[in-house]
């Protein structure tokens, strides 16, 4: 491969990386981010020995139970590290999650799980094993989006399906409203999902009358004689879709009744347990991704009393998820599959402290949803696997949400199904799950805000790239052991890490030249292909006026690059 012109100044590094690219492309091996190979060169022999031992253990488990292990992954919204799994913190927050706390006692409490800074990017990273910037899913999608995760992205559902797993998705999908991005068109055998976040829960007549929203139901207030364009507001909406792989798409529980929105959660939970029963009866291993709605921005009128002293959305949502986790664990025991099932629970990003609902709070780290600080991207994460994961573990190793893609593939015997024509950021962390603290294969994270690199982490050190002054080093370096809340950036004390981070970024960006990112989510018409489509829904993807009267076509607008794609955090 030839170097691009203008890159001669970094030719030595480029030659090393390009030769590595060629070697991996030709060998059919998984291509990881460049930083991984620095670690592999130092620890590869030990990792290989660990893998051999781990494979013996996994083979023995399969022989014992007759199938590969089942995997259940539960991920909700906007929760700080410590809010779940540490009852001492909950004691001063006015709520408790006894079932998930017990999971931490009976398994691993990961104290350094990194995600992306917001909902859509984290969910994309989980599904694809790639930083969200690579798939173009780097920005939170809001209804109506007219875009989604590209059909060419390969999801964990597709990887596991190829080796005999039954796969299901229930809850908050949030990866687009285009037909190609629907969960059952992205590899899931069965899906019941919301294309968007929780914002549409406010899109109901009660919220309009209560002045929570303005303009969605103009018929509910006095006429505005200056309101000329009756087409620009999305007067139609879809809350929930369902479908099966290769089957039709249906809308479930059409809005605007707010009770229907709250019923999404109970229906997701019912289907999760039913899918377990169906898979056990068939003797097939299963993968379930349940991503709870957690809460809504408009209350359920059927609930007259709060269940926690905290009484805010997050606390109320967490105890509801916790109740189901208790029911789920009991159900696995009842079915006799607890010892052959990995259950993992986690949040998708830090607390919604900026312009969000009441009750969101920084706990151990500073920042929250949308931030590149530790509070934005470190989340609670707990894993339990009875008889396999040793109990009562606190793990301080770095783990990234993209690692779950590769780790689940390894547990399912599907590593050869992972694509080798693109960068897979997720590294196999089976050794960390089964061997415990100190066995991570990652000491780095690249943190993006939208499409922009905001920070880099390497072990205990962190560099703030977002606020760095070009041509000048200043207080943009942090030691996360001595300053975990990133309050006092350093320069003199950490000049020795500057070149380390420069090399890390150079390797990372050179790899992106070789394997370019998708610029944005892939555009397309919204909410098409719904068999029981309502007239209101059809208006979302058809022109509001006669197209022959316009000097442009809807297709031109649909294919136009998304404006301000990095701004909707």
What does this structure look like?
This is Arylsulfatase. Residues 1-25 form the signal peptide. The chain has 569 residues and is an alpha/beta fold. It has two domains: 34-226 and 237-454, 3-Layer(aba) Sandwich (Alkaline Phosphatase, subunit A); 455-514, no CATH class. It is 33% helix and 14% strand. The chain is built from 16 helices and 17 strands. The protein has helices spanning 11-27, 34-65, 87-90, 98-106, 119-128, 132-135, 156-161, 205-209, 258-282, 313-334, 374-377, 403-411, 430-435, 495-514, 535-541, 554-558, and strands at residues 70-76, 108-114, 147-148, 166-172, 190-194, 241-244, 249-251, 286-291, 341-347, 378-384, 393-395, 399-400, 444-449, 452-458, 461-464, 477-479, 522-523. The strands form three sheets. Strands 1, 2, 4, 5, 6, 7, 8, 9, 10, 11 and 12 form an eleven-stranded mixed beta sheet that branches. A four-stranded antiparallel beta sheet has the order 13-14-15-16, covered by helices on one side. Strands 3-17 form a two-stranded antiparallel ribbon. It is globular and about 70 Å long. The chain starts with 10 loop residues before the first helix and ends in an 11-residue tail after the last helix. The relative contact order is 0.18.
């Amino acid at each position: 491969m030839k170097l691009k012109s203008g890159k001669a100044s970094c030719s030595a590094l480029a030659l090393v990386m390009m030769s590595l690219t060629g070697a991996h492309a030709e060998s059919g091996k998984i291509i990881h981010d460049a930083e991984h190979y620095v670690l592999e060169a130092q620890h590869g022999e030990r990792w290989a020995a660990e893998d051999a031992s781990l494979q013996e253990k996994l083979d023995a488990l399969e022989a014992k139970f007759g199938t590969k292990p089942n995997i259940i992954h539960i991920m909700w919204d906007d929760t700080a590290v410590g809010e779940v799994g540490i009852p001492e913190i909950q004691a001063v927050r006015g709520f408790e999650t006894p079932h998930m706390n017990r999971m931490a006692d009976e398994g691993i409490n990961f104290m350094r799980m990194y995600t992306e800074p917001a909902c859509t990017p984290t969910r994309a990273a989980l599904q694809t094993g790639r930083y969200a910037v690579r798939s173009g899913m780097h920005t939170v999608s809001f209804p109506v989006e007219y875009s989604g995760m590209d059909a060419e992205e390969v999801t964990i559902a597709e990887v596991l399906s190829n080796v005999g797993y039954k796969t299901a998705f229930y809850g908050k999908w949030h990866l687009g409203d285009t037909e190609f991005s629907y969960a059952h068109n992205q590899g899931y055998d069965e899906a019941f999902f919301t294309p968007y976040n929780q914002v549409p829960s406010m899109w109901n007549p009660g919220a309009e009358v209560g002045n929570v929203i303005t303009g969605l139901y103009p018929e509910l207030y006095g006429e505005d004689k200056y309101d000329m364009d009756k087409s620009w507001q999305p007067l139609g909406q879809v809350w929930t879709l369902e479908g099966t792989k290769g089957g039709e798409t249906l809308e479930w529980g059409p809005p605007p009744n707010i009770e229907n929105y709250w019923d999404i959660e109970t229906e997701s939970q019912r289907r999760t347990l039913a899918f377990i029963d169906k898979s056990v009866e068939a003797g097939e291993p299963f993968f379930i991704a349940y991503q709870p709605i957690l809460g809504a921005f408009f209350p359920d009128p059927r609930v007259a009393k709060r269940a926690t002293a905290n009484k805010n959305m997050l606390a109320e949502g967490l105890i509801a998820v916790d109740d189901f986790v208790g029911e789920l664990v009991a159900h696995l025991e009842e079915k006799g599959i607890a010892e052959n099932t990995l259950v993992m629970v986690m949040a998708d990003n830090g607390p919604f402290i900026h312009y969000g609902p009441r009750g969101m709070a920084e706990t151990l780290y500073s920042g929250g949803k949308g931030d590149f600080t530790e509070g934005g991207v470190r989340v609670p994460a707990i894993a339990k696997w009875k008889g396999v994961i040793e109990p009562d573990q606190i793990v301080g190793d770095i783990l990234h949400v993209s690692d779950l893609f590769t780790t689940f593939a390894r547990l399912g015997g599907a590593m050869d199904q992972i694509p080798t024509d693109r960068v897979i950021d997720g590294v196999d962390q089976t050794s960390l799950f089964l061997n415990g603290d100190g066995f991570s294969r990652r000491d780095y994270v690249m943190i993006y805000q939208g499409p922009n690199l905001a920070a880099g982490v390497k072990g205990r050190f962190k560099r703030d790239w977002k606020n760095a002054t070009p041509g000048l080093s200043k207080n943009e370096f942090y030691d996360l052991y001595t300053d975990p809340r990133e309050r006092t950036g350093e320069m003199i004390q950490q000049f020795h890490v500057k070149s380390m981070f420069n090399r890390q970024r150079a390797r990372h960006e050179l790899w992106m030249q070789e394997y370019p990112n998708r610029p944005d989510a892939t555009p397309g018409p919204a909410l098409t292909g719904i068999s029981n489509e309502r007239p209101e829904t059809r208006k979302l993807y058809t022109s509001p006026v006669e197209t022959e009267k316009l000097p442009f076509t809807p297709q031109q607008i649909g294919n136009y690059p998304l404006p301000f794609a990095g701004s909707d955090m």
